[in-house]
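Chapter summary example.
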Amino acid sequence: MNKKVIGILVVIAIVLLLGIPQYESYQNTLLSEHFNETMQNASSIETEIINTVNDINSQNSTDADVLISTINNDITPKYSEELLRLNESGVSTSNETEHEYIDLQIKRIELESKNLNNTVTTLNALSQYVKGEKSAEDAQTAINNANTQSTEVNNELTQVYSDIKTLLEQNPDLNKKLHDLNLEQSYYGETNVQAQTQNITNSTSV
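The structure predicted for these 206 residues follows.
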């Protein structure tokens, strides 16, 4: 191999070596931007859920079957979509702390979705009792079981909120990054009181 060819190969190698850090920096920037975008998308879905729940609670009275339909058709699919956006955020980062944070947010949403299922169980029991499809005893049993499960879920949910808040307190850079995105309060470990059954089950006995 003559000296000219060797010289060309050396130049190419140097260019490649110089370009790799720049490429990696560019890739990291793209991933960070995608992480931010998907987090904001997830939060905007949470906002839609909150607004739907607030609309329900602002009504003077609501039919159980209408509420079941609203939950199944409007709220539950949004939880699934929010989980999808969070999973996309997880793909967009190699940061271990960010992965831990996303895992906690996914767990939070899964627990809130379980609580919603318990609400549907309660509503179904009330609806079936009113229609004569379920005895008072059976309806009350279903409601009691749903309430017990809700208590267990809420206890676990309280811990998850605490873990999110602690994680952000221990990682101020991530905390600032997320606050700069102006997300819903639940994304900062702040409990967002969603009185899901304020008008739905003010009376949980039959």
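To summarize the output: DSSP finds five helices and no strands in the chain.
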